[in-house]
Automatic annotation (TrEMBL):
<keyword id="KW-0411">Iron-sulfur</keyword>
<feature type="binding site">
    <location>
        <position position="146"/>
    </location>
    <ligand>
        <name>[4Fe-4S] cluster 2</name>
    </ligand>
</feature>
<comment type="similarity">
    <text>Belongs to the radical SAM superfamily. Lipoyl synthase family.</text>
</comment>
<dbReference type="InterPro" id="IPR006638">
    <property type="entry name" value="Elp3/MiaA/NifB-like_rSAM"/>
</dbReference>
<dbReference type="GO" id="GO:0051539">
    <property type="term" value="F:4 iron, 4 sulfur cluster binding"/>
</dbReference>
<feature type="binding site">
    <location>
        <position position="362"/>
    </location>
    <ligand>
        <name>[4Fe-4S] cluster 1</name>
    </ligand>
</feature>
<feature type="domain" description="Radical SAM core">
    <location>
        <begin position="127"/>
        <end position="351"/>
    </location>
</feature>
<dbReference type="InterPro" id="IPR003698">
    <property type="entry name" value="Lipoyl_synth"/>
</dbReference>
<keyword id="KW-0004">4Fe-4S</keyword>
<keyword id="KW-0496">Mitochondrion</keyword>
<dbReference type="GO" id="GO:0005739">
    <property type="term" value="C:mitochondrion"/>
</dbReference>
<feature type="binding site">
    <location>
        <position position="112"/>
    </location>
    <ligand>
        <name>[4Fe-4S] cluster 1</name>
    </ligand>
</feature>
<comment type="pathway">
    <text>Protein modification; protein lipoylation via endogenous pathway; protein N(6)-(lipoyl)lysine from octanoyl-[acyl-carrier-protein]: step 2/2.</text>
</comment>
<keyword id="KW-0949">S-adenosyl-L-methionine</keyword>
<dbReference type="InterPro" id="IPR058240">
    <property type="entry name" value="rSAM_sf"/>
</dbReference>
<dbReference type="GO" id="GO:0009249">
    <property type="term" value="P:protein lipoylation"/>
</dbReference>
<dbReference type="InterPro" id="IPR013785">
    <property type="entry name" value="Aldolase_TIM"/>
</dbReference>
Length: 402
């Protein structure tokens, strides 16, 4: 039996029965009255070492800072440090919270959250009429595993939500926007790659809000045939976007091995071809990440290939490593270089170029410009059609007989 209860009971009883003996437990090892000579010597040496160290005066003496070779560097220095122009505040605000609530209530996903976009606070915080969100269709699990992307991957994602096209159209109609961007995960497990699902969503959006302009950032529909691309391009879409992501040499190391540089160019070409065959006019758009190991002449070649494929819009942005599991950043590109690529691309004949460290493929400033371009083109097309109609009426058979 332990001695602790005995001590406790003995002490307790002692308060009422003074004649009962009290048992006390003491330590087995006595505490020495003074330190041994060896311990005293060791303690003295420690204090001597502290006395020999730097004092506060050494830090404020104004002496020249040691060179980089003489300094001791702590921490992980294998990665370049994040420059100040890439740092963004944590997203907050009433508009941000309202959009997030709308999306959750309807069970929708956004690439803004899934891809950890740094612009989410700017885009979602713009108020009911100015806020933008890029809705990601077909769930939040992708069948590809690109090394730059933080979207979850799965070989066999859950079945498509049949209510998603209707719910997406409902959410967009609530916001009262003039321009919306849709994107999607890759669904190689589906027979058409999800083309019918994307096309249905676009059609329902146009039914609920005929004046809204829709941009879709699509998969490459690998091995699904050009019909899948044509289905999306002719669904009422205004801007068909598909990203080459990087230069041709870096593609196998940056993107999933099932994605190819030539394959992406072919998708953009087929989108324009399918729309023209259906008598529709669309813009095509692609994006390039910088900072993954590309060389200058390779970027120029990628731009030439995009123009050869009749791509209208191109954007440049900085690759940002989403987690430590993803590929490392090769370098952080300075703002001056983005300005240079904007000039180069415009001189090649691109209709619009968005270039900057925080620019992403769906970027608000670019959307406003494209919106104005499309409205202007449609106004010109309507004017031309009205002129042709007037000419036809003037040369009708009745007038010729007279």
């Amino acid at each position: 039996m332990s001695s602790f209860p005995v001590v406790r009971n003995a002490v307790k009883g002692a308060a009422y029965l003074p004649h009962r003996p009290v048992i006390y437990r003491s330590l087995a090892t006595a505490v020495p009255d003074s330190l041994t000579a060896q311990e005293a010597s060791s303690s003295k040496r420690r204090f001597e070492k502290l006395d020999d160290g730097l004092t506060f005066d050494d830090f404020v003496s104004g002496e020249e800072i040691p060179s980089e070779k003489e300094r001791v560097v702590l921490g992980n220095t294998s990665q370049p440090r994040l420059p100040s122009f890439l740092k963004h505040p944590i997203p907050t605000g009433a508009s941000y919270s309202a959009i997030k609530k709308d999306l959750r209530g309807l069970g929708l996903h956004t690439v803004c959250e899934e891809a950890k976009c740094p612009n989410i606070g700017e885009c979602w915080g713009g108020g009911k009429g100015n806020a933008t969100a890029t809705i990601m269709l077909m769930g939040d699990q992708c069948t590809r595993g690109c090394r730059f992307c933080s979207v979850k991957t799965a070989r066999a994602p859950p079945p498509l939500d049949v209510h998603e096209p209707e719910n997406t159209a409902e959410a967009i109609s609530r916001w009262g926007l003039g321009y919306i961007v849709l994107t999607s995960v890759d669904r190689d497990d589906l027979a058409d790659g999800g083309a019918a699902h994307i096309a249905s969503t676009i059609s329902k959006i146009k039914q609920k809000a005929p004046s809204i302009l829709v941009e879709a950032l699509t998969p490459d529909f690998a091995n699904k045939g050009p019909e899948a691309v044509h289905m999306v391009a002719t669904s009422g879409l205004d801007v068909f976007a598909h990203n080459i992501e990087t230069v041709e040499r870096c593609t196998p190391f940056v993107r999933d091995r099932r994605a190819g540089f030539e394959q992406s160019l072919k998708v953009l070409e087929e989108a324009k071809k399918g729309a023209r065959q259906a008598g529709k006019e669309i813009l095509t758009k692609s994006s390039i990440m910088l900072g993954v190991g590309e060389l200058e002449h390779e970027v120029e070649e990628a731009l030439r290939r995009l123009r050869k494929s009749d791509v209208d819009v191109v954007t440049f942005g900085q690759y940002m490593r989403p987690t430590k599991k993803h590929m490392k950043v090769d370098r952080y590109v300075q703002p001056e270089e983005y300005a240079k690529w904007k000039t180069v691309a415009e001189e090649m004949g691109f209709l619009y170029v968005a270039s900057g460290p925080l620019v992403r493929s769906s970027y608000k400033a670019g959307e406003f410009f494209i919106q104005n371009v499309l409205k202007k083109r449609r106004a010109e097309a309507a004017k031309k059609a009205a002129a042709q109609l007037s000419t036809t009426e003037a040369t009708s058979p009745r007038d010729l007989s007279a």
